[in-house]
Design brief:
The protein is mostly helical and 346 residues long. It has helices at 2-16, 57-67, 69-97, 132-168, 170-184, 188-198, 204-213, 217-230, 234-241, 246-254, 259-282, 294-298, 304-309, 315-338; strands at residues 40-42, 47-49. β1 and β2 (47-49) form a beta hairpin.
């Protein structure tokens, strides 16, 4: 009887015992963030290479111009002048710009906004009654065309001769550079003057040809120096190892690495070519009579009466030439800095 009571007490004690709390569940691990996308995964040990976006050359030039406030203003001025000349020239035409008025009432008349000026002529007229605003627009178009053409043709000639000379080096480089040295020693200014006097039917295209004949040597030396540096690079040796032809290596691999030299040179030599045209025209050895240019307008200042009393026949040409060349030089300096990582403002 006692044993039954003990068993009953033990059972009741067991039933009244509080259950033990369940252990806490372990925290679930947080998922790792997805890795950033990469361009490639390769190499012997499976290295991961990060993608690096390299800006284009045009983006570098534009970024450098934007960082330089003076270059940005110069760029805006140059584009405005260029668009004005391009848009207005077809409406004016060469005939209207060079139209001679025999009536003496149109000769050397002041601008319309000046006292005693001729109505309808914003910048007055010259000795032959030609509208000076038309002369200025068409003259600026011709001067810019001459400068751009001489710069482009000169850099093309210098590029082919320079890259060929610098890439091959040795005797090939020696023979080519001796020819360049001989041509450089020739008096270019006097040779241009002599050729202008000898040619019958002289025109603006002959003028571009003569200027180019004596302006490509410096560009050849510049590109040749860059090619001499590039020819010793590993990528040139790798191209030769895989059997690529020399011409392929020159124009596919070496030439793009010379763009940092070529583009600033095109911009900077454009102002030099415009200045050469202006100087020759003022001296009487430039464009033929009746062909408007900034040089022909400025040449009016060689007459003492014009210099003292008729500012409108020469001063607008000087002002436009100054603004044009200054703008080009500031743009060229910014482009030149963009080509050199050590000098970039950006």
């Amino acid at each position: 009887m006692a044993d039954n009571n003990e068993v009953k007490d033990t059972t009741e004690a067991t039933n009244t015992t509080q259950p033990e709390p369940a252990p806490d569940k372990p925290a679930e691990p947080k998922p790792n963030p997805a890795p950033a996308p990469v361009a490639a995964q390769g190499g012997i040990y499976g290295e991961v290479y990060e993608t690096i976006k390299v800006p284009s050359a045009i983006a570098l030039y534009w970024r450098e111009i934007k960082r330089d406030k003076v270059a940005l203003v110069s760029f805006a001025i140059f584009i405005t002048l260029l668009l004005t000349v391009i848009i207005a020239s077809p409406f004016i035409g060469g005939a209207a710009a060079t139209e001679v008025r025999i009536d003496p009432n149109y000769s050397n008349r002041a601008p319309s906004w000046q006292e005693g000026g001729l109505e309808g002529f914003l910048l007055g007229t010259d000795l032959h009654g030609r509208n000076m605003i038309y002369m200025l627009i068409v003259g600026a178009r011709n001067s810019i065309f001459i400068g751009f053409s001489v710069s482009i043709i000169g850099i093309i000639i210098g590029f082919f001769i320079g890259i060929f000379s610098g890439y091959y080096g040795g005797h090939v480089d020696g023979v080519i550079m001796r020819f360049v040295d001989t041509w450089t020693m020739m008096p270019g200014f006097m040779m241009i003057v002599a050729l202008i006097q000898l040619v019958d039917g002289f025109s603006i295209f002959y003028f571009i040809l003569f200027l180019t004949m004596f302006s490509w040597m410096g560009r050849t030396r510049l590109i040749r120096g860059g090619a001499l540096q590039q020819r010793n690079m590993d990528y040139v040796a790798a191209g030769k190892t895989v059997g690529s032809r020399n011409l392929t290596i020159m124009f596919r691999d070496v030439a793009p690495n010379l763009m940092a030299i070529i583009v600033p040179n095109i911009v900077l030599t454009m102002s030099t070519s415009i200045g050469m045209e202006t100087g020759l025209t003022i001296l009487g050895f430039g464009l033929p009579p009746g062909t408007p240019s900034l040089g022909t307008i400025i040449a009016n200042a060689t007459v003492l009466a014009n210099l003292q009393n008729r500012w409108w026949v020469w001063f607008p040409g000087i002002l436009l030439l100054f603004i044009l060349m200054l703008s080009i030089n500031f743009i060229g300096s910014a482009v030149q800095r963009a080509a050199d990582p050590r000098q970039r403002l950006s």
